[in-house]
Amino acid sequence: MPAVPEAQPIFASEWLASVPTSLRRADPFIHRLARENDELYSAIRNQLEACWSEIPLTDRPRVLLGLLRSKQDVQHERARDVLFAGTTLARLGWQVGWEPSGSDGKTPDFLLRKDGLEVLAEAVTPEVDGPLPASKDTQRFRDAIASIESEYGIWVSDLVFTREADHEAARQHFVDAMATAREDELEQMLGEYTAAGANIRYRLQRLSKPTTGPHLGTEPIMFWGAVGYDELRAAIVKKITKYQRPLIAITGVPTGGTPDFVALDEVMYGSEFVTFHRTSATTSVGRSGGLLIERGEAGALIRKHLVGVLGVRVEMPAGAVRHKVRMHLFHAQEDQHTLASAFLPVPQTVLRPNGDRLDLVPTGEPSWSMVPGDK
Q1: pTM of the model
Q2: Strand (E) positions, the chain?
Q3: Over the stretch 236-273, which tens digit does the pLDDT of each residue have?
Q4: Mapping DSSP to helix (H, G, I), strand (E, B) and coil, where does residue 365 land?
Q5: Pairing of β 198-211 and β 150-161
């Protein structure tokens, strides 16, 4: 992959000139990050630029730069996680080859080399529930409803909102819908707004905190930002089918909801259950589900090519103005002693043979974390 021309910074003046100076509440996060000048936004910008500057000038990845500037918040966050993970691994002694070009024309996020090991690393983006992807229709709809003082989220399954749509009529529809919503009907109610240039199918859900504008989400509703088994499996199978080589999949882990990396642990190895044996007054513990016992063609691909899943959790502790990164590597192959050692002190869950079974063995430093870009 060619280097970025002139090794430009993320917030280069040429790109900054294309960012509006007058921002709306619903504008992309990257635009607010580029234009806001308070302590928090300035510190985050500096942190991103510090990490970017750690990549050698000739190796700075063009695709990643575009994603860091993406107006889709999900894509920006994915790129931020990749940047933080890659620069952190470089600090831990890995040789990180950013966006290496192969003879097959396929370009992973980076190639990792250390102690004779070589493995591809690629970020996967599970299709999970969350904000609607950025689009012209979505932005026009946001503009129509942004001024509504709301305690509801609007969960959308179909959205068409073209230039011909009447903003005021759409706004009034949702004002009326929220005013007349009944709590006992929220889960079942599926509303529809159809007018010239507009077709919206939706339902309302009360938010935990009132907002200055309705939160937009996608159907079907699950847990916001949760890493789901089906979603992650599909994303990983797609990547290993593409590369057909040893692969570490990188996925972002939400800072809210399920604490730490518990959800990802269950996705990888299944949910733990306890069986009670009445006759002997004893119990036994087992697990069900998980990527490692996936069946069929998908399971065969996972067991053949997936080296592990690296969860990346980007946090901002209370009172701080800079992100810190925590990672956890979940191994997908047994007896990876060399790989486990190469990733230390990053916490890991290793598969260790024990007779006719595999034990899940923790290694690494559980409290490990790093502040990306911090010298």
Answers
A1: 0.72
A2: 95-98, 110-114, 117-123, 150-161, 191-195, 198-211, 215-218, 247-252, 271-277, 282-288, 306-315, 324-334, 348-354, 357-363
A3: 888 888 888 899 999 888 766 555 788 788 888 888 88
A4: coil
A5: antiparallel
